[in-house]
Amino acid sequence: MSKAMKEHKHPLADFGYCPKCGSDQFKAENAKAKRCGGCGFTYYFNPSAACTCFITDKLNRVLVAVRGADPAKGTYDLPGGFIDPYETAEEGMAREIKEETRISALSGLRGGIVDPLRYLFSLPNIYLYSGFEVHTVDMVFHMAVESLDPYIGIGGDDVAELKAIPFSELDPETFGLDSIRKAVEMVKSARYF
Fold it and tell me: What is the pLDDT of residues 70-109, one digit of tens each?
């Protein structure tokens, strides 16, 4: 069991009843699973897949979103979100980019893309949503566009505003979510792009 798992309550602690038969005999079997004493069903907890993207331009600026909703409303974020069922990570990332920024991430050079969407690394995270700790694996991507100027302003979906910030001025402490803050720190220290 990882140190992080020891520091948090069991991920299924809020689930008191078996989702298959409804029994209240749904008890922790180990750090990642609950088993029903009534029907024998075992549910293994796995993290949700999420994605985020550093979108840069030729002026070495990064497209930063201002969160329009909790958690961390009003703080900086990167475009991204949860990957939907039946999507690949790349499809989910492209959809989230389109919803939040209007950029067609898969449009290629004719769409102003100068460096296509590519995977960088992943980070574990706990995302507090509606008072519930959602464990995620956040996949971090990068893509570059000719210019961020057409996208600055009002964002889509749950983004209040989009800003273009020079890479050298990115401050991890202005990002409200732990995994995004860590991603900014990693990218700034290792220069992934």
Answer: 899 999 999 999 999 999 999 999 999 999 999 998 765 5
pLDDT digits (tens, 9 = 90+) for 98-149: 999 999 987 655 566 778 899 999 999 998 888 888 899 999 999 999 999 9
Q: Would you state the CATH architecture of domain 48-190?
A: Alpha-Beta Complex (3.90)
CA nearest to 149, candidates 140, 162, 138, 161: 162
Measured CA to CA, the distance from residue 193 to residue 173 in angstroms comes to: 21
Nearest to 139 by CA among 188, 181, 82: 82
Place of tokens 């409303």: 73
Q: Please state, in angstroms and as integers, the Cα–Cα distance from residue 186 to each residue in 109, 149, 171, 181, 182, following that order.
A: 28, 26, 12, 9, 6
Which of these, 56, 55, 49, lies nearest to 89 by C-alpha position?
49
Q: Which pairing describes strands 76-77 and 132-145: parallel, antiparallel, or unpaired?
A: unpaired
Give the pair of three-digit tokens for residue 110. 């004719």
CB of 56 within 8 A of CB of 101? no
Model's pTM, two decimal places?
0.87
- How do the domains of the chain map onto residue ranges? 8-44, 48-190
